[in-house]
Amino acid sequence: MPADRSYYSTRLGPLTITSTVPVTHTYDVYLDVNAGVDIVSNEVFWVFQSIDPATGAPPSDPLVGFLPPNVMGTEGQGFATYAVRPRSTAKTGDVIDALATIVFDQNDPLDTPPYLNTLDAGDPSSSMDLMPAEIVGTEAVLTWNLADEVGGSGVKDVDIYVSADSGPFELWQASVPLTATVFTGEPGHTYGFFTVASDNAGNREGLKAGAAATTRLYLTGEAARVEILAEPVLLEANGGSTSTITATVWDGLDAPMAGYTVNWGTTLGTLSTLSAATDANGRVTVTLTSGTTPGVATVTASAAAVLGPVVATTAVTMEQAIAGLAPANDSPTRLGMPTTLTATLGAGSNVTYVWSFGDGATGSGRVASHTYPAVGVYMAVVTATNSISSLSATTVVTVAEHVGLGDVNDDDLADSTDALIILSADVGLDTSQFCPLYCGDVNGDGVVDSTDALLVLSYDVGIPVPFPVRTGACPSSITPPPGCSP
Length: 486
Fold this sequence. Notes:
flat, 32 strands, 5% helix, 42% strand, mainly beta
C-alpha cells in the first residue's frame, strides 16, 4: 500500500491461472485488491476479489479464482505482509501482539495463532579497559565490557575503531562477537581505540567522541621514526648548487638516538656520503649537490630496525636557468587576421610564458595568437619565467592593410599571371578589378610598371630578387597606373 494512505484500491491482471482440479486447465481472472488501516481499532485489512473478465463479476464457478485449490503443497495458499513502528513512548519489554482472521467467500472465519513481538527500545553500551601508556613490541591486547538494559535483546557484537598518532578514527574490525582481541601496529606510533556495540534487535551504540583507550608501541634500542629536512628545497641544475639534508632518528619513546647509522640515497644529483652515524642529538647531515639535469630529487634516509628499515624521504627540485630566449612571429599580417607568436629557448625547465603584444593586450603560452586592431609596427615582448630565473625578449610585428608583395590578384601566389596584370596596367589596359594594385609596387618606388612585372616573373622562375615577393607588406600608397583609370 502506498505510504501515508489509510485506504488503497487497485485492479491487477488479467492473471493467467493454471489449475489441476478437476483436470489441468488455465483461465484468466482480474484481481481487485482493497486494503486499508483503521487507526482507531488498530486493524489492517486486505480484501482480494477474483473477477471474471467476461462478465466483470465474481466467477460463478467455485473452482475459479486467483488462488487455485490447495491440493499440491502450498499452491492454494496466500499471504500478506506488513510492518509497524513502535510508538515513541514504547519501552524495552513492551509487547506488540497480532492476530489475523481469514475469511474465504461465505465460509466461517479462520483465526491464526497470536504472534508476539517484545520490544528492545534502548541502545547497548560498551566500555574499553584502560591500557598501559607504553607497550614494548608491536602487539596490544584490547579488552572491553558490554551491557544492555534489563529485558533487552542482549549485545550481539562490537565494531572497533582505531586512530594513529591523533589522526582520524577508522573502522579496524567489524562485528566482533568477543570481548577481547589483539591489535598489531608499528613501533614508534601512538594508537587510540573505542568500541561501538550492537544488540540482537539491531540497536547500535553511538560513535564515541574520542579514544577510550590509548597506548604507544615501541622497541627498546631500535629506531622507530626518522625525520628528514632539506634546506633549501630548490636548486639550480648547474652541477654545483647544494642543499643541506638533515635526518633525525628517534626511538619508540621519542628520544633521539645517538650513534645510529643512517643510509642515504637520491634519485637525482649526488650526496656527500651514503652512510653516516647520528650525533648526540640523534642528527646526521649530508650535502646534496645538483647535477645538470632538471627534475625532482627524492632523497631517502633509512635507519635499520628489527622489523625492517625505518625510512623517510624529502624532495628537492632542481631547475635549469632560462637562457637563449628567442621570440618570432609570422608577420607581416594582413589587418584583421591573427598573428602567431612563438617563443623558443636554448635552456630552461618548468617555464611559463607571458606576452605583451605591444598594443596593450597580453597573452600566455609558448605559442600565442593575437589579432591587432590597426595597421602598424608593434614591439611584442615575451617574458619566460621559472622558479629560479626570468628572461625577456622582443619581436617586431608588422600589420599591413595589404600583404603579399607581387600578388595583385590575391590568390596567395606571385607568378606570371600577376606579372601580366602589372604589365597590362602599365600600358593602360583596363585592370580596374585589381586596382589600386598596391601589391604591384614590388620595388617600392611608388609606381606600378614593367620593372615590377619583371621582378615578379624573375621570382616565379626562381631567379633571386632583392625584395620579399609574396610575403612582404605592400605599400599603403602609390601612383595609380594607367590601367586603374582607363
